[in-house]
Write a structure and sequence with these properties.
With about 575 residues, the protein is of the alpha/beta class. It is built from 19 helices and 14 strands. The strands form 4 sheets. Strands 8-11-12-6-13-14 form a 6-stranded mixed sheet, with helices on both faces. Strands 3-7-4-5 form a 4-stranded mixed sheet, with helices on one face. The N terminus is likely disordered. Keywords: ATP-binding, Membrane, Nucleotide-binding, Transmembrane, Transmembrane helix, Transport. It is found in: Cell membrane. Pfam families: ABC_membrane_2, ABC_tran.
């Protein structure tokens, strides 16, 4: 288990590898099984972008001829140029529509592929559980949904924008160099002086915008985290609405939610301040860029060296060159948000990689066998405290074992270790493959009751007669008519009904080894006894390993273990009734 300081040091080291790690993340899709279609779409989009640049070059030439026709009052040329512009405009509209459409198609295909890969990695090796236990990766739902969407959209748009601006820069630089002529400054003749003016203007602007807005990356990162924390708090209130209402906890929840919103609010104010300064600069920079080329080129126009059409062409070419050179300025806010998104995704992927490495080299060695066996097994907490001293134990197939102990002694942790969820410890354990674990609060997915009863298998796995009989056996016959009704069953059913439904699920699955972690705690003793009797009758020969506190459970277990002072102690046997 890494400490917070170790994680911080690791993150600092990873920052130095940012671009190489982003490159690896980006190229995953372009080398995947979908690379053929991906590259085809990308090349088509790039081609359309280049056509768009060519159209801009054509419009630039059109400016010169159109304004010269106006200056010369040449009506036939004017009419011809208007019709020519309509043709250019029609092509430009078509190119713009399909460039956007195909870009969106490529974006959603890329996002779907990345989402599939990240879903698989998140769910593999119980990573979704271990990330929550380690607590070093906040809001994985945001990273899987919003960040993957932002990453694909921003990466594609920024990359295509950069390509389009580079091509535009080269094209219009040639035009600007050719039409701007030369100027003499302090006795030195400067050829293509408008090009050098555009270059100087863009370089100064890029340097200044970086100074003004460099805090945006960190602020955007924190804003996304605070927004996700607020959403998580709101979801928590929805999930536990009844408990909060019964406890009259509205004031407390109001305070908690406003505390989370305060982080959103205060960080957003900082964002506003930086963006205000950036907008002041960007707006001023753009407005000056409108008249700057006219002022610089005006002396040649008034001296008669160029016509009005030439002046307008110079103005258009300068604007395109300056815009291309100023791409960094215009895209700075988007680049800052993209960098923040990449940081979150990379740290999430690093956490997944750590989880996979931990799964491949677990501290507790595991295998499968006919019996449950512990060999020198120790368990501890994340902070290093011990829960179980070295313990060796064997439970034979068909045995019924009751595990008891004081609250907090580590009984549930032992079951987590048996299931492979608990990573802190050492030693070796052997667990039979056909095992099923029932927690105190069962999980019921949103959907039909039949699907919830068959979980984690498909709803069609069991015959209708088997499903209905399992419900009757567990005194849930009133739910039979609702088997194909979709609902949020964790909100509909009582805790006792949920536990009985979990027992019905076990009857259908018929495992050879069944582990119950206080799986009947919400039931009264009569119902609990009836269900245990049912399990013994319907699952003959199955091993039952139960955690419970009630003495009435002893009659259903031939062997009893008690966890006391970090040791498993054999209790006197009680023959089952």
């Amino acid at each position: 288990m890494k400490s917070n300081a170790e994680y911080s040091a690791a993150n600092d080291a990873l920052q130095g590898q940012f671009f190489s790690r982003v490159w690896r993340l980006t190229t995953l899709y372009w080398r995947s099984e979908e690379k053929g279609m991906a590259w085809l779409l990308l090349l088509v989009v790039i081609a359309l972008s280049l056509v768009g640049v060519a159209i801009s070059v054509a419009v630039n030439s059109w400016y010169r001829e159109f304004y010269n026709a106006l200056q010369n009052k040449d009506l036939p040329a004017f009419t011809h140029l208007i019709l020519y512009f309509c043709g250019i405009a029609a092509v430009a509209i078509l190119v713009a529509v399909y460039r956007l459409y195909l870009t969106q198609m490529l974006t959603i295909r890329w996002r779907r592929w990345l989402t599939e890969q990240h879903f698989a990695a998140w769910l593999a090796h119980k990573n979704y559980y271990r990330l929550e236990q380690r607590g070093h990766t906040d809001n994985p739902d945001q990273r899987l949904a919003e960040d993957l969407n932002s990453f694909t959209d921003s990466t594609l748009n920024l990359s295509l924008g950069l390509i389009r601006n580079v091509v535009s820069l080269v094209s219009f630089s040639v035009i600007l160099w050719g039409v701007s002529g030369s100027i003499e400054v302090f006795g030195i003749e400067i050829p293509g002086y408008m090009f050098w003016a555009a270059l100087l203007y863009a370089m100064v602007g890029s340097w200044l915008v970086h100074l003004v807005a460099r805090r945006l990356i960190g602020l955007n990162n924190r804003q996304q985290r605070y927004e996700a924390d607020l959403r998580f708090g709101l979801v928590r209130v929805r999930e536990h609405a009844e408990s909060i209402a019964l406890s009259n906890g509205e004031a407390n929840e109001q305070q908690r939610l406003m505390g989370r919103f305060h982080n959103v609010w205060s960080n957003f104010w900082e964002l506003m301040k930086v963006q205000k300064r950036l907008t002041f600069f960007s707006a001023g920079y753009s407005q000056i860029a409108i008249i700057f080329p006219l002022v610089v080129a005006a002396p040649r126009y008034f001296s008669g060296k160029i016509q009005l059409g030439d002046l307008m062409q110079i103005n258009s070419a300068f604007g395109n060159v300056q815009e291309s050179m100023s791409w960094f300025i215009d895209a700075y806010a988007s680049l800052a948000a993209w960098r923040a998104t990449c940081d979150r995704l990379l740290s999430f992927r690093q956490a997944l990689a750590d989880g996979e490495a931990q799964a491949e080299h677990p501290a507790i060695q595991r295998d499968s066998g006919e019996a449950l066996r512990l060999d020198a097994l120790t368990l501890g907490l994340a902070d290093g405290r011990s829960l179980l001293e070295p313990t060796s134990l064997r439970i034979a197939p068909g045995e019924h074992v009751l595990l008891s102990g004081a609250s907090g002694s580590g009984k549930s942790t032992l079951l987590r270790a048996l299931s492979g969820l608990w990573p802190f410890g050492s030693g070796h354990l052997s667990l039979p493959e056909d095992s099923l674990f029932l927690p105190q609060k069962p999980y019921l997915p949103i959907g039909t009751l039949r699907a919830a009863l068959s979980y984690p298998h498909d709803a069609e796995r069991y015959r209708a007669a088997e499903v209905e009989q399992a419900l009757r056996d567990c005194r849930l016959e009133h739910l039979i008519e609702r088997l194909d009704e979709a609902d949020h069953w964790e909100r509909v059913l009582s805790p006792g009904e949920m536990q009985r439904l979990a027992i019905a699920r076990a009857l259908l699955a018929a495992p050879r080894w069944l582990f119950l972690d206080e799986a009947t705690s919400a039931l009264d003793e009569a119902d609990e006894n009836a269900l245990y009797q049912l399990l013994q009758e319907r699952l003959p020969g199955a091993s039952l390993i139960s955690i419970g506190h009630r003495s009435s459970l002893k009659r259903f277990h031939s062997r009893q273990l008690r966890l006391e002072q970090r040791h498993l102690v054999e209790a006197p046997a009680t023959l089952p009734a």
